[in-house]
TrEMBL record:
Name assigned to this protein: COKA1 protein
Gene that encodes the chain: Col20a1
Major location category of this protein: secreted
Domain Fibronectin type-III residues, every copy: 161-250
Organism the protein comes from: Centropus unirufus
InterPro entries, sorted: ECM_Assembly_Org, FN3_dom, FN3_sf, Ig-like_fold, VWF_A, vWFA_dom_sf
Keywords (A to Z) from UniProt: Extracellular matrix, Secreted
Domain VWFA intervals: 1-133
Pfam families tied to this protein: fn3, VWA
Database matches in CDD domains: FN3
Higher taxonomy: Eukaryota, Metazoa, Chordata, Craniata, Vertebrata
């Protein structure tokens, strides 16, 4: 699977989209470059929420690997998002090109760093990494697959996922989330939320016995994406997703003008709830003469 990112991540193809090498190479040739910013944290969250889920071809029993390719320093908190993936057993390889921040690459990548962090001076030099990276990836997959584990069977997927996400009591700064727990109760829930037009993802981790959350300190008049992930000892269930907008801040009403003179006027209005100050702007109407 492959996703490309700048301010907002974009899935190019899912894990189950192609089944041959030639199909992948053809898709790569047809891919359009996405210019813009470098929100790596948002991109890693996108991978977890969109690309590593059963609907996109991820199998619960399969080992999970993410290869991050970047040529710049992240403009949001990449370390927090990366740590979330690593806590779920997802291994991250970080490849930097040109102006990539090597310290950040080492923070994001999984241990051991001598196998998971790479840096080259320019894009053509990426070809020099292919054979080594291929060997390392294949070896890591075999090592992890050979370990004795108690992985939850893939056919239990529906048993691992919560349902019926409801968003209520929405205000300009808060909203309330509730959901129905899965038949197989999780150890914890991870709730991720962020503005749909780009921004730093925030997350809350709850005990698996809890199935509601109040989100506070939100930005007014903003659309938020919300995801609820159930976390088990050896797997993560499919996430619940929702979208809603916070309310705009209340406005002053009933503007009145009185006590007019040749160089003054009095304004009055009904107060806006919660306002601590007002900004009053005054300018001459078009063709109204001198200010």
């Amino acid at each position: 699977g492959l996703s490309q990112y700048s301010s907002d991540p974009r899935t190019e193809w899912d894990l189950n989209a192609y089944s041959t090498r030639d199909q992948v190479l053809e898709a790569m040739k047809n891919m359009r470059y996405k210019g813009g910013n470098t929100f790596t944290g948002l991109a890693l969250t996108h991978v977890l929420e969109q690309n590593l889920k059963p609907d996109a071809g991820a199998r619960l029993e399969a080992e999970k690997f993410v290869i991050l390719l970047t040529d710049g320093k992240s403009q949001d908190d990449a370390n927090l998002a990366a740590q979330t993936l690593k806590n779920l057993g997802i291994e991250i390889f970080a490849i930097g090109v040109k102006n990539a921040d090597e310290a950040e690459l080492k923070q994001v990548a999984s241990e051991p760093l001598d196998l998971t962090v790479y840096n080259v001076l320019d894009f053509p030099l990426l070809s020099s990494l292919v054979s080594k990276l291929t060997r390392v990836l294949c070896t890591r997959i075999k090592e992890k697959s050979n370990k004795e584990n108690t992985e939850i069977p893939v056919n239990m997927g529906p048993q691992l996922s919560p349902t019926d996400l409801k968003i209520s009591a929405v205000t300009s700064k808060s909203m309330h989330l509730t959901w129905s727990p899965p038949p197989n109760p999780p150890k914890k829930y991870r709730i991720v939320y962020y503005p749909s037009k780009g921004g730093t993802p925030k997350e809350v981790v709850l005990d698996g016995a809890v199935s509601s959350l109040q989100l506070s300190n939100l930005t007014s008049h903003t659309e938020y994406l919300v995801s609820v992930f159930p976390i088990y000892d050896t797997a993560v269930g499919d996430g619940l997703r929702g979208v809603t907008s916070t309310l705009p801040l209340s406005s002053p009403r009933s503007l009145r003008v009185s006590e007019l003179s040749h160089n003054s006027m009095r304004l009055s209005w009904k107060a806006a709830q919660g306002a601590t100050q007002y900004l009053v702007l005054c300018s001459a109407a078009p063709d109204g003469g001198e200010d």
